[in-house]
Design goal:
- The structure is a homodimer.
- Helix content of chain A is 54%, strand content 12%.
- By secondary structure, chain A is mainly alpha-helical.
- In chain A, strands 1-3-2 form a 3-stranded antiparallel β-sheet.
- The radius of gyration of chain A is 16 Å and the shape is globular.
- The model of chain A has no long low-confidence stretch (mean pLDDT 88).
- The first copy, chain A, binds a DNA duplex through helix 3 and helix 4.
Chain lengths: 119, 119
DNA sequence: CCGGATCCTCTGCGATACTG
DNA sequence: CAGTATCGCAGAGGATCCGG
């Protein structure tokens, strides 16, 4: 198995730090377009540089789209999952199912069944 | 969403670099126990330090087991997926399915349907 | 020999400040 | 508001070394 393998390269892309969390955030609450600042404020602990970097990667690989509204002030940028990005959410759902089967070690998630994530 | 969320923390664990590739390698060829050197030689590009670190993490979180055979010479260590680890393979399979749906961009994988990964 | 540990380098991430 | 600039540190890459 080397970097000529599709799965290998895909894993390398999506398993970068914060990537799945960002995708999950864009999926929550119905999956509509979300602004940079909204994402940053919802994801606790992420820094602007990393968020910016990840968003660019995701746009480049067509998992999300970026729309800039220049007419408004202040400038409004919105990110949204593509069909391909939405389809990837099922992977994260699978991770959630697995985690709940094997690793439920805190009361909050056990009670809520991770409903906060809207998964 | 913060680090009190089970999904959040699980993603942080499994999305570390090389983790999924290692799990996949332990699943290939029937999923029997495999030696440190075998894993290192099969996964092109991984360094001994990172492999060692990831294996420890995976043992700690019960996704794999480590068995040391002191009686033999040279000493033989073998790693093997636990039931929990095997169950996680379905996540990686889901990633493969997704990759093949959206990202088949090289002939090798398109032809082989990633059969080299035994997925 | 095998299964790592060690040392060093270098990219990547975290934290804060700042700008078009 | 949506990022970039800068700095410091942790983690990954590369080579070598070492105990059993």
């Amino acid at each position: 198995m080397d970097d000529n393998c599709t799965v290998f390269r895909t894993v390398d892309l999506v398993s970068k730090k914060w990537t799945m969390v960002i995708l999950l955030e864009l999926y929550r609450d119905g999956g509509g377009p979300k602004r940079y600042s909204t994402i940053k404020n919802e994801i606790l602990g992420i820094t602007p540089k990393v968020l910016s970097t990840r968003l660019k990667e995701l746009v480049k690989h067509d998992l999300i789209t970026k729309e800039i509204d220049v007419s408004s002030f202040p400038i409004k940028t919105e990110y949204e999952l593509t069909e391909m990005g939405i389809d990837f959410i099922k992977v994260i759902k699978e991770i959630k199912e697995w985690a709940l089967r094997w690793k439920v070690d805190n009361r909050v998630c056990a009670q809520l069944d991770c409903s906060e994530c809207n998964l």
